[in-house]
Amino acid sequence: MIQLNIDNSFTRSLPADPDTTNKVRQVRNAAYSFVNPMHFSKPELIHVSPEAATLIGLTSADIKSSYFLEIFSGQRIYPNTKPYAMAYAGHQFGNWAGQLGDGRAINLFETLHEGRRIATQLKGAGSTPYSRHADGLAVLRSSIREHLCSEAMHHLGVPTTRSLSVIKTGDQVIRDMFYDGHPAPEPGAVVCRLSPTFLRFGNFEFFAANGDEKNLRKLLEYTIREFYPSIDSTSKSSGLDFFREICRKTIALIIEWQRVGFVHGVMNTDNMSAIGLTIDYGPYGWIDNYDEDWTPNTTDAELRRYRFGRQDSVALWNLYQLANALHTIIGHADALRDILDEAEKLIPIGYYSMMIKKLGLRDLDEESIDLVDRVRKLLQQHETDMTIFFRKLSTLDISAFQPDKTGITSWMGEAFYSSPDNNSAVLTDWEKWFVDYIARLKRENIPVHQRHLDMKSVNPKYVLRNYMAQMAIDAAYKGDYTLVDELYEMLRKPYEDQPEYDRWFVRRPDWARTKAGCSMLSCSS
Ligand code: AMP
Ligand code: MG
Questions:
Q1: What is the pTM of this model?
Q2: Which residues are near ligand 2, the ion (C-beta closer than 5 Å)?
Q3: What is the pLDDT of residues 318-337, one digit of tens each?
Q4: How many angstroms separate the alpha carbon of residue 89 from the centre of ligand 2?
Q5: 39 alpha carbon – ligand 2 mean position (Å)
Q6: Lower CB density within 10 Å: C or N end of the chain?
Q7: Rounded-to-integer distance, Cα 44 and Cα 194, Å
Q8: Consecutive H or E run containing 265
């Protein structure tokens, strides 16, 4: 048997729903409901992240044992544990959506390993009281996407939940992938996610909306005690201190997304982590050509509420909703508003500090901010690949580079999606930008070697572009998982040159421009 150090702190600290049936219902006065994962025909291991496994103390022998497959597909309940689904609510696309909850997530247990508490959660292991009209299942394609992207984000240094494994269930799941009235069977899968906690803004909103102040207090105390050790959970200001910290963490997270070109796609308050992690990988996407207006989510295609360039202001809107929920027990409306005002000010400071680092600059001032704003505009004006541009810039040799039209067109060749006309205004503007940028670099006078190292550490060479994940998925649907392995391996070291993977350091291929799964994704998963 696999040895885990079980620690059920969440279920110990918060009340359970007394109803233990699986009936879909509105839950009151409880933070979760006990549930059982469903039975699957033939679980098959598709991929394990050995690094994630170490978080809960699993050895390589554990991963290979038959217990691993049984436990992490939900087919065997670990001794002295009781799986549960959490109750939460939320605002979806700007509207109050009422009770949501873990409709297809089942928490297995929490472990305490090397002083770290980790919750283990299956996604796609069957229905729960929170499943509403849906089936509680997940398909292989979205499971591969969640698994690869969680681990890739971790290695990029972006706060995220982790993914231990993807297991194919052996059963089919019916999905209408394009929401166009053509439902079809697809292979089902279960992802096992790991995180210190899966609590979201929505867990707080749930109790606040139901007027359950007693449990909202308990939840707040639990969250602070377990996940905000720097705050004294018994002090009078602990609620405000928590809110200040979650504001800081959330904004820092969004700036990290902007740094690497990640678009979450569904920033509803039920998908906002209470500890500032990226959580719930659905119709997310990565920026190929730099476009602040882009979102991969077809459900959001019209309003583009969750587009790349708007993620910071949406985060702030979500924090307002959390403030409203907390206000019901902590009061202090003015203090909460002040914290939100402070948070709003953190956005431009954090954003420009991050962006000047991407440019290899150190001093934040009017000139460096202007260089950032101009480059954003230029990147967007004539289709330019974000990852390739910043990575190439990271090793720019300013003594050899000719910032004229010919020099720029040839140097930018790999990053431009098409060659601009030689007389185009955009080339003239690029020329001016490079002249000013190089002059500024010379003035800052950071040793070349150091600048290159610094820039390479914030400008990844490899990210999980949508078409890459889709290629891995297409192969997996034919029973070939080698691309899942290859991408996983490559994305473990996104900042290293790894020339053996150079074939992935290219612009999105033309065939992927409009292909489903590559340029757009529905919420169907
Ligand atoms: P999402 O947009 O994926 O974050 O999901 C929003 C809500 O819908 C959450 O409460 C999910 O648990 C629930 N949900 C999504 N897909 C399913 C499904 N296949 N079965 C049951 N609940 C689901
Ligand atoms: Mg969700």
A1: 0.98
A2: 271, 280
A3: 999 999 999 999 999 999 99
A4: 10
A5: 23
A6: N
A7: 20
A8: none
Alpha helices in 359-424 (DSSP H): 366-381, 386-393, 405-411
CB of 103 closer than 6 angstroms to any ligand 1 atom: yes
395: tokens are 């090793």
What pLDDT, on the 0 to 100 scale, is given for residue 2? 96
Whole-number mean pLDDT of the chain? Answer: 97
Three-class secondary structure assignment of 110-156: EEEECCEEEEEEEECECCCCCCCCCCCECEHHHHHHHHHHHHHHHHH
Q: Which ligand is nearest to the CA of 284?
A: 1
Please name which ligand lies nearest the alpha carbon of 134. Answer: 1
Ligand 1 pocket test: pick from 27, 130, 171 the residue with the most ligand atoms within 8 Å of its Cβ. Answer: 130
CA 314 to centroid of ligand 2, rounded, Å: 16
Residue 31: which residues within 8 A CB-CB, separation 6 or more?
10, 14, 15, 16, 86, 87, 203, 215, 218, 219
Q: What gap in Å lies between CA 73 and CA 124, rounded to an integer?
A: 9
Residues of the chain scoring pLDDT < 50:
none
Q: pLDDT tens for residues 131-179? A: 999 999 999 999 999 999 999 999 999 999 999 999 999 999 999 988 8
Q: Locate 351 and state its tokens.
A: 């954003």
DSSP 484-508: HHHHHHHTTSTTS--GGGGGGSSPP
DSSP state of 46: E
The contacts of residue 312 (CB under 8 Å, 6+ apart) are 251, 254, 255, 258, 347, 351
β strands within 204-284, DSSP E: 262-263
CA pair distance 285, 302, nearest whole angstrom: 17
371's tokens:
């260089």
**Polymer length in residues for the chain:** 525
Answer positive or negative: Cα dihedral of 53, 57, 63, 67. Answer: negative
